[in-house]
Amino acid sequence: MRKSIVTGGIALIPVLLLSGFALAQSAQVDSLRGGEVDELVPLDQVHKNVEGRMQRNYRQQPPLIPHSVAQYQIDTRTNQCLSCHDWTKAGERNAPTLSMTHYLDRDGNELDRIAGTRYFCNQCHVPQADTPPLIENVFQPSSGN
User: Are 115 and 103 in contact (CB under 8 A)?
Assistant: First the structure.
């Protein structure tokens, strides 16, 4: 009796998987931009980079990047952001220096190099751009207090 229940359950698994797959394939997916999901949209039509610094919307917001980073390499071996923004080079490159928090390890100890937890800049910082909203945004910036 128990063996027939297990065999029946095992036989039912492929049926459920195939029916789930068929249902997923028939589902209609809508794009947030209103076009076809697989339609290629040229990047320059979606947004334009904004030169100069934009005001932050809330306290502790990571600064936006005021330039293109399209060709920047950031991986475990190379971080091209540091070629200008590391404290050893920022002065000669006329670039903002990284915050001192980027040179603290998890225990709060000061380091001479950027902390591994802050190495991948694009985890927090994004290029600023004038983009059309995908959905209505009701966010209100802080009052500055």
Answer: yes
Own/partner long-range contacts of 72-80 (Cβ < 8 Å, ≥24 apart): 74/120, 74/121, 74/122, 79/114, 79/119, 79/120, 79/121
pTM above 0.70, yes or no: no
Tokens read off for 93 = 């490159």
DSSP string, 13-43: HHHHHHHHHHHHHHS----TTSS-TT----H
Specify the fold of 65-131.
Flavocytochrome C3; Chain A, domain 2 (1.10.1130)
Is there a contact between 50 and 130 (Cβ–Cβ < 8 Å)? yes
Tell me the two tokens of residue 78. Answer: 């190379």
Read off the pLDDT of each residue in 95-115 and give the average, rounded to a whole number.
Answer: 93
Across 1-145, where does the E strand assignment appear? 48-49, 129-130
- Secondary structure (3-state) at 71: coil
C-beta separation of 103 from 111 below 8 A: yes
Alpha-carbon distance values, 30 to 12, 38, 42, 124, 136 (Å): 32, 10, 19, 28, 16
The pLDDT value given to residue 14: 80
